Amino acid sequence: MLKLSVFLIYIGGLVAVLSFLAGPLTHAFVKHKTESGAEFFVVGVYLAMVGRVGWLGLFLFEASRLASFERHYRKREQAAAVPEKQQAGDFRDTLPMMPS
């Protein structure tokens, strides 16, 4: 989900840049222009529709971060609930005492 959200954020950023360049790009690529300039309206509408994808990507990114923090917090609470001797890697009781 993280990769998808970052991809959507990049798409939203690209659309934001393209929105600034919509006029010159429309002049460059549209050979037969209408008298009313409807092609500029259509390009603007499509850029506005695709521009919402960036917000969706941002929402997914923040949701994945929140899920990760929650998962880490639950693991830490569960580890704290386990008595000290039962934690993995605690070998104090199994090793013989060294004479002093």
Biggest sheet statistics: none
Write down how many β-strands occur, each being a DSSP E stretch of 2 or more residues: 0
* Percent helix: over 70%
Compute the number of structural domains. 1
Low-confidence stretches: none
Radius of gyration: 28 Å
The structure class reads mainly alpha
Mean pLDDT: 79
Given the structure, what is the number of helices? 3
Share in β-strands: under 5%
Order of helices and strands: HHH
Give the CA-based shape: rod-shaped
End-to-end Cα distance = 57 Å
Describe the structure.
With 100 residues, the chain is mostly helical. It has helices at 2-20, 22-29, 38-81. The protein has one domain (2-81). The longest helix has 44 residues, at 38-81. The model has no long low-confidence stretch (mean pLDDT 79). The chain contains 3 helices and no strands. 71% of the residues lie in helices and 0% in strands.
